[in-house]
Amino acid sequence: MNKRDYTELYDEILKLDSMEECEKFFDDLCTITELDAMLQRIKAAKMLLEDKTFQEVTKETKISSATLARISKCIKYGDGGYREVLEKKKK
After folding, report:
1. From CA 59, how far away is CA 6, in angstroms rounded?
2. How far is the C-alpha of 25 from the C-alpha of 23, rounded, in Å?
3. What is the pLDDT of residues 59-72, one digit of tens each?
């Protein structure tokens, strides 16, 4: 896969107009395990942004320390995707 392939996916996601459309699309696109993993990462990112400790996050989310370290790295040094989305949700 190349960057252009991902852009096609993102373009399709941006076409969704409602929660119902989003649910249908992601239910078709992903397995329950994949959806659970994405939800777990979002919950972990939210907790890290709320200054929760790694121990608190792993205890509540059951996320692996390797995945949590990656999320933390993305929050600190990444493009700001987690922060941008989670701050939009607050508004």
Report:
1. 33
2. 6
3. 999 999 999 999 99
pTM for the full model? 0.86
- Concatenating the DSSP letter of every residue in the chain gives --HHHHHHHHHHHHT--SHHHHHHHHHHHS-HHHHHHHHHHHHHHHHHHTT--HHHHHHHH---HHHHHHHHHHHHHS-SHHHHHHHHHH-
CATH class of 31-91: mainly alpha
Q: How many CB atoms lie within 10 A of CB 79?
A: 8
